[in-house]
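Record pair follows.
FIRST:
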Amino acid sequence: LSASGFVFDPVGGSSFTANETGIAVLRMLQDGAGEVPQIVERLGREYNAPAAILERDVLDFAARLREVLR
């Protein structure tokens, strides 16, 4: 994960670019925040957004990660 959000999977060769929120989620995962509720809570403090919307966005992002990094 680069500072600009570029993500490369050296095993599968896939790559993508994450937006600001995606970068935040990936950084949280790198820091050990492995559960959705924990990530949603941290995003809520940072972005002051409703938990339901953040949870949906985190789950959507996780689904996209699974698709890209297969």
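SECOND:
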Amino acid sequence: AFEIKSWFVDKGISVLGPSELLKKQDLYRYRVLLRSKNLEDMRQWVHMWYASYQNRKVKVAIDVNPLFLD
């Protein structure tokens, strides 16, 4: 979650976080919010970041326009 800021810094995407959430089932959880004026461009950049993500010990969930932030 921490290197995500440097990945999106020059792509017109604001990175809010990471914010540490409560541990759930003995796992640490973080939330990172992304903001951009162009949703389609942001989706493409997130897709490229996710495709290049190498750390397989970490689960990543992506929710576009979430209704709730738990």
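COMMENT: Helices lie at 4-8, 39-52.
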